[in-house]
């Protein structure tokens, strides 16, 4: 009996270790797998370093408004993603006679993916006859302090529904970009806007001093929805609240922005249609 | 007297084709409770009003004691019992649960039975009326005609046709029955068609036309000497049904109702009868506003399906006690959605019944005991598990917006009743009944999503965390009867706890364009109903007079009148029959003004009215052929009126002359 017991114990251990091996095998290698649902925008080797950077976007096209990125870095000779790295983004629009930048959120490791750096850029106008956008990544290998830069063109399109609004208040010009809902649906949705100030052609800092209230409506029907939560500043110019949609269709979210008793109204159209998978 | 009624009772049939011969087995505790010798209150009325085979169920319903008909057009009235309707009462066909598929209650279960199919009404008022489910308001069970056995004439067929002027309405019907010794069959069909009707004074009520076909088939086999197997199907198909009170019409409404029943009797000295039934029904309802001039076009399809079964058995204990025990179960699923179309915008979509699933199982017992020659005691109890939930992810997300409490996934419901009836002398009988009842919120009350109600013009939102409605009730009745004169008087008082009612939520904006606002269903702390009903009938030679009068009054927690309560209403009919088959009937129907209204509910007063009806018919019998020709003038003085419960104050039909012919052979 003892022999049988011992044999079965070994058998269990053996089976378990096979499972363990399989599952741990899934976790490593192929670092791109978890990013596979995003869109690969570009892949660049960084001069003066052993690094290669892949840039992923959340939409097929980059748009005027808030664009999220993920950056995955590979180092030659390493099978895993390289994470001891610093990336800073610079985006410039070349309008011939002048150049300007746009609000940037520099990448941080592990925002959504363990081995990738998440960042964002708020493009403030589309590419076209007016000018061309470029994006520059400055990458630092913190193991070696090697540093290099890569610049590539990006094509910025106007989305069907505007996700960026701008206004002047006093001498300042502000840009409000819609961050969430990114995939709106019936029910309770996060509502996040990012507010940036245009301090100069190259300096677009986040602005945290606004008080914001929201009110969604269905313009075609003339009704709204209950229990919305006004966005409040969390960090980096991001204001977070909740917006509730009671049905599919065309919604308009009205915002009241208030700073030092100066008021500004603006709105975002948000349309989503019923899919039978609901 | 009690035991005389218990056991096998041969039920008389109302339809001219269904001669006695078929034996129906029914435990007639009801009749005992009501205490009249011949029949219960409702079927006596039913028989009386069904004298014209081509009149509609709605007309019959309106004249019953304690029953009103709520109207949304010229079609499909919904029964209201003592001010209670919808989920507060259980409307069934042969004790089968059916869930209308229209979120606006355009398709009450009563619309699936045509008069030529209706055999008996089994109505029990109040919390003691648990025939097929827990209830606070009672049961309204329509028993449909069954095939007849052993008739000397094997095949009987009848057909009839009616034309009415005010709605240019045509209806035709046929029944045919085969009556064998071991097997029997009954087929019936009807077709009704009406154009927009003319209200009193001449106004044409737009969007009030309809088309409807009702088919039914029922076959029975005797199995041995003690068993009977029956399979029945009802198919009800309506199309292009206009609803003047609503911003939409019905493109099509389909109901298929199937039941399989096995009856056994004389099982043992203690068990007289056993019934086992399995049933299924599916209702599909398509509402749209294709024929309306509206800014936003809407489609509102809905469907329900119900699968159920029950076993019931009548038993007796000794010479003095008898009862009926029943175990029943059903599961239902309700789905309804709404899509709105606006030019140049994407369609707007929502679920109005987000796949609401209900599972119910219950056990109940009605028991009667004969204390002495003069006194009967009655008791009943039902325990029911009623589980309800939503199966749709979209529905979950929709309702999450309101941030209600945790959904009420179900409760164990209790119904109980206790009563006594005592003879005082030879002609007087007095009864007293106490009851307790509970009911779960309906699909709409718990999960309905922005359902527009044209009665008050509000959008209604259901609350998943609603609790069951509970009621304690007291009822007393007195019956006096001689050969020529019968009088009965009933008084009742219902106390409600957690009464379910829509309450205006000023924070919410309505979904329906032009709606007055949004109401969310709530459990009110308290509501009460009290009322009085009387019935008088007198027979003298060939002359019969009948009167029914009903009155209900209700109040809510803040002492304001309870909404949706009809005013005092009375019907008087006098009929005279000659020996050579002429029959004359004159009737008056009147209701007082209803100004006990709830303004914060959005209710408005309804004026008093009275209307008069006249009817004459003549029958001929030639060998085996019977022919009957009728002429009726309804609303003789062309009065412009509506009843308090009618949606949108839409006027009822004006003077309407009807001609009908009915033949059977």
Question: How is this structure best described in words?
Answer:
- The complex is a heterodimer of chains A (278) and B (665).
- Chain A has 278 residues and is mainly β.
- Chain A is built from 1 helix and 20 strands.
- Chain A folds into 2 domains: 33-157, Sandwich (Immunoglobulin-like), CATH 2.60.40.1930; 164-272, Immunoglobulin-like (Sandwich), CATH 2.60.40.3340.
- In chain A, strands 1-2-4-8-7 form a 5-stranded antiparallel beta sheet, with no helix packed on it.
- The longest helix of chain A has 26 residues, at 2-27.
- Chain A is globular and about 60 Å long.
- Mean pLDDT of chain A is 85; it is low at 18-32.
- The longest helix of chain B has 9 residues, at 41-49.
- Chain B has one domain: TonB-dependent receptor, beta-barrel domain (Maltoporin, Chain A, Beta Barrel).
- In chain B, strand 13 and strand 14 (297-317) form a beta hairpin.
- Classes of the chains: A mainly beta (278), B mainly beta (665).
- Chains A and B meet through strand 16 of A and strand 16 and helix 5 of B.
> Total number of β-strand segments of chain B?
30
Q: Could you name the ranges of chain B where pLDDT drops below 50 across 5 or more consecutive residues?
A: 1-40
Q: Helix proportion of residues of chain A, in percent?
A: under 10%
What is the CATH architecture term of chain B?
Answer: Beta Barrel
Shape designation of chain B: globular
- Helix and strand content put the structural class of chain B at mainly beta
> What is the tally of beta strands of chain A?
20
CATH topology of the largest domain in chain A: Immunoglobulin-like
Give the fraction of residues assigned to helices of chain B: under 10%
């Amino acid at each position: 009996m003892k022999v049988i017991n011992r044999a079965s114990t070994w058998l269990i251990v053996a089976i378990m270790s096979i499972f363990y091996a399989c599952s741990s095998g899934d976790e490593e290698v192929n670092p791109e797998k978890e990013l596979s649902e995003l869109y690969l925008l570009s892949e660049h080797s960084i001069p003066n370093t052993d690094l290669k950077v892949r840039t992923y976007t959340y939409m097929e096209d980059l748009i005027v408004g808030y664009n999220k990125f993920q950056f995955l870095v590979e180092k030659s000779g390493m099978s895993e993603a390289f994470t001891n790295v610093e990336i800073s983004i610079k985006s410039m629009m070349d309008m011939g006679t002048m150049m300007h930048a746009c609000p940037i959120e520099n990448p941080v490791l592990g925002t959504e993916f363990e081995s990738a750096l998440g960042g964002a850029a708020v493009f403030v106008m589309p590419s076209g006859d007016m000018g061309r956008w470029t994006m520059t990544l400055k990458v630092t290998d913190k193991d070696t302090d090697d540093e290099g830069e890569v610049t590539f063109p990006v094509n910025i399109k106007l989305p069907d529904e505007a996700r960026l609004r701008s206004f002047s208040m006093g001498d300042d010009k502000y840009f409000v970009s819609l961050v969430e809902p990114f995939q709106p649906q019936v029910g309770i949705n996060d509502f996040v806007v990012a507010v940036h100030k245009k301090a100069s052609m190259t300096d677009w800092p986040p602005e945290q001093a606004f008080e914001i209230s929201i009110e969604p409506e269905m313009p075609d029907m003339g009704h709204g929805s209950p229990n919305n939560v006004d966005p409040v500043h969390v960090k980096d110019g991001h204001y977070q609240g909740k917006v509730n949609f009671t049905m599919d269709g065309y919604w308009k979210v009205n915002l009241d922005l208030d700073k030092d008793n100066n008021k500004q109204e603006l709105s975002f159209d948000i349309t989503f249609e019923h899919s039978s998978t609901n | 007297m009690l035991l005389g009624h218990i056991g096998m009772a041969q039920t008389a049939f109302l339809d001219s084709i269904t001669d006695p011969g078929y034996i129906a087995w029914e435990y007639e505790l009801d009749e005992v409770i009501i205490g009249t010798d011949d029949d219960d209150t409702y079927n006596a009325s039913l028989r009386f009003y069904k004298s014209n085979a081509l009149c509609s169920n709605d007309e019959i319903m309106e004249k019953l004691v304690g029953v009103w008909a709520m109207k949304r057009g010229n079609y499909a009235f919904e029964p209201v019992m003592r001010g209670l309707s919808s989920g507060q009462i259980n409307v069934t066909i042969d004790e089968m649960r059916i869930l209308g598929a229209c979120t606006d209650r355009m398709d009450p279960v009563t619309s699936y039975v045509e008069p030529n199919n209706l055999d008996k009404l089994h109505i029990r008022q109040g919390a003691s009326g648990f025939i097929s489910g827990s209830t606070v308001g009672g049961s309204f069970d329509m028993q449909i005609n069954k095939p007849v056995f052993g008739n000397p004439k094997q095949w009987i067929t009848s057909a009839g046709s009616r034309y009415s002027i005010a709605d240019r309405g045509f209806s035709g019907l046929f029944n045919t029955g085969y009556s064998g010794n071991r097997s029997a069959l009954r087929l019936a069909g009807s077709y009704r068609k009406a154009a927009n009707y003319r209200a009193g004074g001449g106004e044409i009520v737009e969007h009030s036309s309809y088309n409807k076909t009702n088919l039914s088939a029922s076959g029975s086999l005797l199995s041995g000497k003690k068993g009977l197997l029956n399979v029945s199907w009802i198919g009800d198909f309506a199309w292009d049904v206009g609803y003047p009170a609503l911003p939409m019409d019905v493109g099509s409404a389909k109901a298929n109702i199937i039941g399989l029943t096995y009856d056994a009797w004389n099982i043992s000295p203690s068990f007289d009868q056993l019934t086992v039934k399995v049933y299924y029904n599916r209702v599909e309802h398509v509402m749209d506003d294709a024929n309306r001039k509206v800014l936003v076009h809407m489609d509102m399809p809905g469907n329900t399906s119900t699968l159920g079964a029950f076993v019931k058995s009548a038993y007796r204990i000794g010479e003095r006690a008898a009862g009926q025990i029943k175990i029943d179960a059903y599961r239902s699923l309700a789905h309804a959605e709404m899509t709105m179309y606006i030019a140049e915008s994407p369609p707007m979509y929502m679920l109005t019944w987000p796949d609401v699933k209900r599972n119910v199982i219950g056990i109940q017992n009605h028991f009667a005991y004969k204390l002495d020659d003069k006194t009967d005691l009655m008791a009943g109890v039902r325990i029911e598990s009623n589980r309800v939930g939503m199966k749709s992810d979209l529905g979950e997300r929709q309702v999450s917006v309101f941030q209600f409490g945790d959904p009420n996934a179900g409760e164990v419901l209790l119904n109980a009743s206790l009563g006594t009836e005592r003879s005082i002398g030879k002609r007087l009988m007095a009864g007293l009944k106490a009851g307790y009842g509970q009911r779960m919120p309906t699909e709409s009350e718990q999960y309905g999503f922005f359902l527009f109600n044209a009665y008050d013009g509000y959008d209604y939102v259901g609350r998943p965390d609603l609790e069951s409605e509970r009621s304690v009730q007291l009822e007393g009745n007195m019956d006096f009867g001689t050969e020529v004169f019968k009088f009965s008087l009933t008084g009742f008082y219902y106390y409600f706890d957690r009464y379910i009612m829509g309450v205006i939520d000023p924070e919410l904006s309505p979904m329906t364009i032009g709606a007055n606002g949004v109401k969310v269903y709530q459990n009110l702390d308290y509501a009460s109903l009290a009322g009085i009903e009387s019935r008088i009938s007198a027979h003298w030679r060939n002359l019969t007079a009948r009167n029914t009068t009903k009155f209900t009054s209700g109040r809510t927690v803040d002492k304001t009148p309870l909404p949706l309560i009809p005013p005092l209403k009375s019907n008087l009919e006098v009929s005279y029959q000659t020996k050579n088959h002429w029959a004359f009937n004159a009737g008056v129907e009147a209701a007082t003004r209803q100004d006990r209204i709830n303004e914060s509910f959005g209710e408005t007063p309804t004026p008093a009215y009275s209307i008069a009806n006249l009817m004459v018919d003549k029958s001929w019998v030639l060998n085996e052929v019977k022919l009957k020709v009728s002429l009726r003038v309804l609303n003789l003085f062309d009065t412009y009126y509506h009843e308090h419960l009618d949606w949108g104050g839409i006027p009822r039909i004006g003077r309407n002359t009807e001609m009908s012919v009915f033949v059977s052979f």
